[in-house]
Amino acid sequence: MAMEAAARWQVEEQKLRCTKEPFVDDAGTDRIKSIQFSTLSGNEVRGSADVQVWNSRFYDATHKPVPGGLLDTRMGATNKFGECTTCYGSYTECPGHFGYIKLALPVFNVGFFTNILNMLKCICKRCSRVLLADGELRQEFLKKTRNPRAEAQHKSIIAKNVRDKCKPCRCPYCGFMNGVAKKGPKTGGLNIVHDCSKTLDGNAEELRSALSHKKEKLSINSVHLLDPQTVLSLFKRITDEDCELLNLGDRPEKLIITEIAVPPVPIRPSVFAGGAKSNEDSITIILKNIVNSNSIIKDFLQKGEELVKCFNWWQELQLQVVEYVNSDAPCLTASQNRDPKSRGLIQRLKGKTGRFRGNLSGKRTEYTGRTVISPDPNLKITEVAIPVLMAQVLTYPERVSCHNIEKLRQCIRNGPSKHPGANFVIKPDGSKLNLKYGDRQITARDLKYGFKVERHLEDGDIVLFNRQPSLHRMSIMSHRARIMPWRTLRFNESVCNPYNADFDGDEMNLHVLQTEEARTEAFMLMGVQNNLCTPKNGEILVASTQDFLTSSFLVTRKDTFYDRSYFSLLCSYLGDAIESIDLPTPALIKPIELWTGKQLFSVLVRPNACIKVFLNLTVEEKIYMKRKERDKKEVTVLEETMCPNDGFVYFRNSELLCGQVGKKTLGNGNNEGMFSVLIRDYNSHAAASCMNRLAKFSARFIGNHGF
Ligand SMILES: [Mg+2]
Ligand SMILES: [Zn+2]
Ligand SMILES: [Zn+2]
């Protein structure tokens, strides 16, 4: 028997073990039908707590937390060396336990202050009934709110109608004359007053006129304060039927605080700042003030003194509880001597640095990088330059095979701090070897097929590149890595458009893909080459901008002629000395050989005879002179190609016959531009390589030429 009990106890204990691990429910696939939110009643707060907090001292003379204090060890371990005295867990095991403070007098919950006020407007201030006489109207409202198919929004509208019907009047149940419930004077914090001055009936008027004859100044006080205690007792007497009328999902007395839940110590750590002084969390300090005021009020009440005497302390307590919930509440600004830095519960949760946006919606991940971006026209449009420093941290787990074993051995020998290196070796059994320690020569020698080496990022690795705000799918595209010195991420200016990036300090993010499958998928689907056009309307998005347009415009002017040496030099600009270039026949042969700038542009589109790209297109540039204008200026030549401004761009078989190319031909946002036609008639590779050549050429040309 005893054994059995012991075994069961062990199971129970395992079940009860507290932990900071996230909760994983393995209950299968249950469907949630509905969720109801509610506030905790005083009893529930007390029930879920393990300690009553009443002592405002934190530590005793020996630096041990005081029992019954705000750092009581029963609410969890205070620091790494402490132990929880409720579950005997260590700092890492025990998530902490709640405590509670019993308030001597109730206070309003700021979060529900308007709801409390609205409710008070509807009920009789003596008998707590809703100010609707028993009758058809009341029954009709009840019928509507009880309709199980009514939607929540509809029900709240009904509740509002009920509120509108409950005008201040004589209570139909007890005959009490009700006035208006409204907010008290702003200076005094959270107050509700009951103003009967407008609704006083004839008798009071009579009384007042009778009094006015007297010499002594007697005034009838027609404005009463509705303190939380009074409101609580009123709310307790509201019948369940009236609750339905007011569309309350729960008992209204829960909106008034009688017990405060004290959060576990681990969420408000206490730090010793050298010597005997400790640094307390904002919440702990606020709670300490609450405990202080509370004990003063308790003393007053125990002496049997009247409520009026401790009224100021009561108000103070009310404001402290408000601060605990929301330290930015408007009623707090009126009062002095409050720490502006104190953070209430709401401040912990909301906003950019709050728990949800700041801590929970995942931000930091491994294998990512972020820095400032800068332009680099020497890169291909599909590339991104990654600083060496970044490449040494970002790694890719490459599996060892006969093709790469020597390369990876060299990476291992280089180790974590030399660039084409590696940080870890993962063996097939899952064990991970840190290359920062141990003999790397031996590790490299013992490398076998099937091992994985977490090597540094190298040229050609596929990475995802992203700029916020990620508004469309081109905000995140895959590029090929180029490891470069210095500290910025760099890419070709042609790709500014899809990211909507400029270089005035913009930062961008980089994600390194960790499997071959992911790399392939990203390359096929998200590659820059496959996203040159926007899916919105087919317009080209990755296109030439800025310098590229300027230099193209300058080169293709009518009066540009280059001799053999300069033309050859310009041609050499557009490749990496890998591409072979066929020099076209010069446009002028005598007296000297001269080439035009337009011929240079033709070379740019089709550098050699092996490239089977035959571009045919016509574009009317911005400077193109229309028929009407020609008539006005008495230009007699009417052929499009003979535009006086040379604004008609005409490509035939990849030869630029006329026209000065500009934004319409090369820029974004035109379905009939050069790159669009290249994609349409050939493929995105043709367009991309043409863009690369143009970028390279422009950067060098405009660097020497100027404008
Ligand atoms: Mg910017
Ligand atoms: Zn514990
Ligand atoms: Zn009444």
Task: Provide key terms for this protein.
single chain; 707 residues; alpha+beta; DNA Excision Repair, Uvrb, Chain A; Barwin-like endoglucanases; 4 domains; six-stranded mixed β-sheet; four-stranded antiparallel β-sheet; 23 strands; binds magnesium ion
SSE layout:
Layout: H1 2-16, H2 42-48, E1 51-52, E2 99-108, H3 113-122, H4 136-146, H5 152-165, E3 180-183, E4 192-195, H6 202-212, E5 223-225, H7 228-236, H8 240-245, E6 256-262, E7 271-272, E8 278-279, H9 282-302, H10 311-325, H11 330-333, H12 345-349, H13 355-360, E9 368-375, E10 383-387, H14 388-391, E11 395-399, H15 405-414, E12 422-426, E13 432-434, H16 440-445, E14 452-456, E15 462-466, E16 476-484, E17 489-491, H17 496-499, E18 507-512, H18 516-526, H19 546-555, E19 561-562, H20 564-573, E20 595-596, H21 597-605, E21 617-620, H22 627-632, E22 648-652, E23 655-658, H23 663-666, H24 674-681, H25 684-705
The structure holds magnesium ion (MG) and zinc ion (2 copies).
- Could you tell me the mean pLDDT? 86
Unreliable runs, pLDDT <50, ≥5 residues? 215-219
Radius of gyration: 40 Å
CATH fold-level topology of the largest domain = Enzyme I, Chain A, domain 2
**Biggest sheet, open or closed, and with what strands and sense?**
6 strands, mixed
CATH class of the largest domain: Mainly Alpha
What hetero molecules are bound to the protein chains? magnesium ion, zinc ion
For the largest beta sheet, what order do the strands appear in spatially? 10-16-15-18-9-17
The percent range for strand residues is: 5-15%
* Coarse morphology: elongated
- DSSP helix count? 25
Question: What is the second-level CATH architecture of the largest domain?
Answer: Orthogonal Bundle
Assigned CATH superfamily of the largest domain: RNA polymerase Rpb1, domain 3
Number of domains: 4
Helix content: 25-40%
| Classification by helices and strands | alpha+beta
Straight-line distance between termini: 98 Å
